[in-house]
Amino acid sequence: MAMRVTGMMSGMDTESIIQQLVAARQTKVDALKKKQTQHGWKQEAWKDLNAKIYKLYNGSLNNLQYASSFVKKTTTVSNSNLVSVITKDTAMDSVQNLKINRLAKAGYLTGGVIKGADGKKLSGSSKVAESLGIDAGSTFEVSTNGKKTEITIDENTTINSLVNQLKAAGVGANFDAGQQRFYIGANALGEDSDFTIIGSNSEGTNALDKLGILVYDDKAKEAYKAYATMSAADIASLKQSRVDARAAALVAERESLTKDKDELAKKMKECAEEYSQAYGQGGTYDLEDEGKRTARKTDLKNQISELEAKTELSAEEQATLDKCKAEMSYIDGYEGLQKDVQEKDTRLSEIAKYVDNDGKATSSLEAEIGAQVDAKIAEAARIYNDYSNLEGKGSASDKQVGQNAEIELNGVKYYADSNTFEINGLTITCNGTTAENEMITLSTKNDTSGIYDMIKSFIKEYSALINEMDKLYNAETAKGYEPLTDDEKAAMSEAEVEKWEAKIKDSLLRRDGTLNSVSSAMKEIMMSGFEVNGKKMYLYDFGIETMGYFNAADNEKNAYHIYGDEDDEAFKNETNKLMAMINSDPDAVVGFFTELSKKLYGKMFDMMKGTEFSSVYKVYDDKKMKEEYDDYTVKIAEAEKKLQDYEDKWYKKFAAMETAMAKMQSNASAVTALLGGS
Fold first, then answer.
1. Domain residue spans of the chain
2. What angle do helix axes 513-526 and 448-473 make, rounded to 10 degrees?
3. pTM here?
4. How far is CA 12 from the centre of its chain?
5. Where does 155-275 show beta strands of DSSP type E?
6. Residues 450-482: pLDDT tens digits?
């Protein structure tokens, strides 16, 4: 807002005069703003109420209109400590006998205590080859869930890296430094998720023994037997499959290394160019020339050592030292990249021994894999042929075999890799095994409580909604109250402003025609009767009624109550007719409430159809109300423009008056001077 200085010549308080002239027209602007504010509040009131109407429509009412919603089942068990049951609606009414023979278990290995070669305790960083006297190249196989993984120990393998390799193979693994044991477990219950760990060569078997995880049980025996009894054709096939897999892995590694090497070479080139621009000195120093680079590096080191040896440096010497270090960082960075390239070249040369340029395995790879498989077969045969002497003598403390759960339902055996069974609509979860002659009874029947709760939920939600609609419609008038301006709010306390606005907001939908139409339509259907099995029935036939006009509280006269509802203080001591009907005549209950809900659902759908003035799923004219709100915005802008023009007009008039008075005073002063006045 522009700053105005007025009344300098006239001595009049023109600012106050103009504000008084404008005040009358300001009330018109304020009136429009108040109407818009109240209109906005009304929009919010309708939005909140509509959300509750839609919730009823799309929730409990929608569920109630389908006969399938009334098909609810429940199952009771004679021993809930041993079994729990979840019942689907598709389950049959029945009484069944259950016997739990065994629970599913996960395979679990508790390793034996291990000792370092020097007698010291091992930690996660201990190298197993050095600490336990295990030969590099020792290999063993981990098999679980149909996946077989070879783990080879080298001179750098630590306890921690071995644990990570075991995890990557598909089992859970941990080394407890306090207990000095490995713990290995299957990742799931059941036989299929169990695991075996067997030596792939004699060194591998020795490694398992020293690691405390060598097992000679029935499952390991089967694993050794599978290799020991392989036919020549099967051995050849195993070799070929391993050669193909190894060749494919090496080709993929070569492609990755080549890509990385090219990227490193590019970075080296960029580094050399940047160095040349910054320190090249006409080609005297060149990073790509090893001789020049080495000489320059030596020179820099000498300069840095000489400068750092001084106790105090001049500003010039400090600058020289900083420059030398910066140049040295370029050389170190370049040589670091060069080292990475050399390492990748070394690995690429190694890969070239095993796969040719076309990605085919070389004779070296075939020979190496062949020797590994032969060693595996030989070790498996050695152990299998001597299993009667080895069985149970491994270094592991215990190996729990993974097993499937087994139950008998009505004499028929069922198996699962977990303790949960899905059988004919029942989800049976076993928590323990039955005694030798114990039988658990499972009784499945209609869930009358579930049906009752579904109807109760609808009645409760409908009643709460109709109470709110009646409260809004019958609200006390707020005549004489209108939204406050900022100045009016400033003159009141926060509590007074809140109370004032609440009075207006509570009455926004008072005697609203749309609200009356919606609530009346819903009430009319709830009071209607519907033909069920040749008889017209009403809500009161199921023990559902209103409290009565004279007994109900204000704005609760149209709410429904269920006789015998334990949560309803007024009716909890009455006979629960609804529950009795559900038990004695469920067809009548289903017939009546599906018809009632379909009728109400259809009517609410019609009221929420989109029109020219309302959106889909809105019972009020939200589009029209938005247009009206936007119209207020336009009218307010126009009124404020007119008010500003009116104010500016008066400022101009008073400014002209001030100018005229200044000229008169100037002329008067001139005349006085001519006449010799002072």
1. 1-40+621-667, 59-69+449-474+510-620, 76-103+406-444, 108-214, 240-367
2. 150
3. 0.63
4. 70
5. 172-176, 181-185, 195-199
6. 999 999 999 999 999 999 999 999 999 999 999
